[in-house]
């Protein structure tokens, strides 16, 4: 049985129960957050680092959590920001080299022993890497995680209309990539 | 805008919706214990940092006060010396006096007073003056020639 958010927040306020609350928080959200990050970052080690950073940040600021959003939304928001910041930093770093992050991550999909998908899934991942980060994020959240646009709107701070448009464009681009055999 | 129907997406195009990645064995099983260790280490470092910070925050005003006393003391003793010409004047005067005193032992008073009044550049020394005692014969000849 999954621990209740209210219970986690209550325990987090108690000095001697903080570790217990943290353990419950991680138990409840670690897998969902991990897959959310991993689908964007592709590499397990990087996803692991970002997941740890997400919990560290959440833990540091949990005292300031006002409960305007659900704990789930708040954690997803932290994880998404961490992930997008990481990608941007990586891109900046690659500016000096003759490489781009899409090709680099595409090669990882090819060679990663932890990628267990078939050829169609591999092609989809390569198509996704060719999309802008936010479209990729929206596609992953909608297609793989079955999130509603309202949930996505809470996490990403974008209107439902804009999210629908992003998803629509993402799907159309992927279809075009596949039909034109870009990947 | 056409409505995108996820169900209608061909599995042939997009594949199944299963996430195609895996994690190393027991990754999620170990995660909490690894994170708790990491957080305990981080909080221990923070606590140590806080202790050092608190010691510094106690000592800092005292250090600042001591430093300001040192600066005031330095200003009191050193600044007048730096901005005053007295030191140079007293040094040059004492040097001049010493020279005159040493001359007084070997030269008569009239020559000394003439030297003081007219300055050494304008003094015309007689060849038999005791001042020439310090010159060699060649230097003496040169001086005599130009005079």
Give a brief description:
Chain A is mostly helical.
Explain what the structure shows.
The complex is a heterodimer of chains A (about 180) and B (about 150). Chain A folds into 2 domains: about 100 residues, Rna Polymerase Sigma Factor, Chain: A; about 70 residues, Arc Repressor Mutant, subunit A, CATH 1.10.10.10. In chain A, helix 6 crosses helix 9. Chain A has about 180 residues and is mainly α. Chain A is globular. The N and C termini of chain A lie far apart (about 45 Å). Chain A has 9 helices and no strands. The longest helix of chain A is centred in the first third of the chain and has 24 residues. Chain B is mostly helical and about 150 residues long. Chain B has 2 domains: about 60 residues; about 60 residues, no CATH class. In chain B, about 70% of the residues lie in helices and about 0% in strands. Chain B is elongated and about 125 Å long. Chains A and B meet through helix 2, helix 3, helix 6, helix 7 and helix 9 of A and helix 1 and helix 2 of B.
Assign the CATH architecture of the largest domain in chain A: Orthogonal Bundle
Radius of gyration over C-alpha positions of chain B, nearest whole angstrom? 47 Å
The secondary structure category of chain A is: mainly alpha
- N-to-C CA distance of chain A: 43 Å
Total helical elements of chain A? 9
Helix content of chain A: over 70%
Organism (chain A): Marinilabilia salmonicolor
Family (chain A): Belongs to the sigma-70 factor family. ECF subfamily.
Domain RNA polymerase sigma-70 region (chain A): 25-91
Domain RNA polymerase sigma factor 70 region 4 type (chain A): 123-174
